[in-house]
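re: that chain from earlier
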Amino acid sequence: MRNRALLALVMVAAAIFVFGVAGLIVSGREEPVSDFVAAPRGTPAPAGPQTLQLRPEPSSEPSPASSPEGSPDETAAAYFQAWVKSDYDAMRELVDDPPDDFADQHREFEDAALSKSLRITVGNLVRTGDDTAEIPFTQERDEQDAGTWRFDSSLHLAVRDLTWKVVWTPAVLHPEIQPGGSLVRTEPDAGPLRPVTRGGREFPQNSGAEAYLDNLMNQGVAPTAGVAVGWALQVDNPGLPAKTVLSYKPEKRPVGVRTTIDYAVQAAAARALDGVQRAAIVAVRPSTGEILAVSDKLGDRAAFERKYAPGSTFKTITAAALLNNGLSPDSTVDCPAVYQIPFHRPIHNYKDENHGTVTLRQAFALSCNTTFVRLTIERLNGDTLVDQARAFGFRAQGDSSDTSTCGSLQRPENPDALAEDSFGQGTVEATPLCMALVAAAVESGEWRQARPLADEAPQGELQNSVPLPSNVAEGLRSLMSAVTVDGTAAGSELPPGVAGKTGTAEDGQGGQDHAWFIGYRGDLAFAVFVEHGGTGRGAAVPIAARFLKAL
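^ sequence. v structure.
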């Protein structure tokens, strides 16, 4: 009986010893660590020890000869600090047997991710053996448009040559990446896109702008190879299909390449030309030079690229030169039926109309050829007229630095040539776009180069401008207003507030005259051209009236 009691006591003592040892082993294998949050990407990590703190290991002290240098938590903290600073050399020093392209793999990952910031939150260190450990961590990356991207990874550590080192694989960057794999950014496309109006709408049917839109596509202004719609980050591992780990798709897919064309203005221009065979309307915004509409029934983008004699619409430029030369809209001038250039040819008014003594404003409104020829011969010369035309976008013969197709003229070499050029005949030629820009310059007081159809630049870029003297701009507005009030465009169906200039131009080949009307109303300037249409009042003004009344 006594022996049995002694045996029981021995067994209890043994049990207490075993459970005590087991408790030490469990405690030694799991060591809780507080969170480590790395600094935002691109900023230095704080100096000194980080928040990776372990409780002292309960195991007995090893002999100094076999004790590894440092600890796994210290190595991990140093590694994460170097990571958030993109210090790949420091990271490499902490890695056991790093690959030759260690830094390159990190850079390629960052180039694909394009993260705006990086945060790393560290979990609890876990001992996986006497000389091995791992520590889980979470990466948080702020991605453009997609918000925060979070994913979990693990950092493995081991004792190598009595030093705690990181055992690195690409899975440290992202757990899905295998050796030889990488993170790749892809940008799917929406396919070829057609140009659309400035508001994103498709162009009106049969708008007359089709040739210009096709030209934009052919010139590469509108991307024909497709437009990127969102993006995706994929893990590309050898021998495996790519796996998407993050993607972004905008709520609205782009409907097309935006142009400066205004849908309502374009539709009004197109309908104003219904039933007209050979004509064009170009509308621009005077304050910016943006093209608001182009409806062309001439073919081959003639409204922008083919030049015609502008006729009396060019008197706007001649009048600018005269206003610059000291005249005013109220200056008294003569408008005889015929003016004989001294020792040269006679110049006739349309239908030999004689208006006697009038103001310069009235002579402009009545489109007196004789008045403008006489004033040009007496007050101007070839150089003066050419210089004034340059200020309105015209190119003189020999201007090799200017490749504009807007308008052109040769320097007049004698009084007859100077006379013809002064009222838009002779060597003067201009596109409908060019003459719309002339009208726009009068309204805004500044000639501006036309903005391209593709609206890809901020306001004010891609354009040259030439300011008009204030007295010239104000004088031209007075002259053009008189045309629609009591001049060649008066009594028409034009809406109130329109100012302009009619033009009737010989085609130089014996055919019917070309008809012009240029003008503006508010922040919209325009040119109407009818090939072989007859007079400006008879053919071009009614089209302008339909166009403006539809807005």
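Residues 1-63, 457-462 have pLDDT under 50 and may be disordered.
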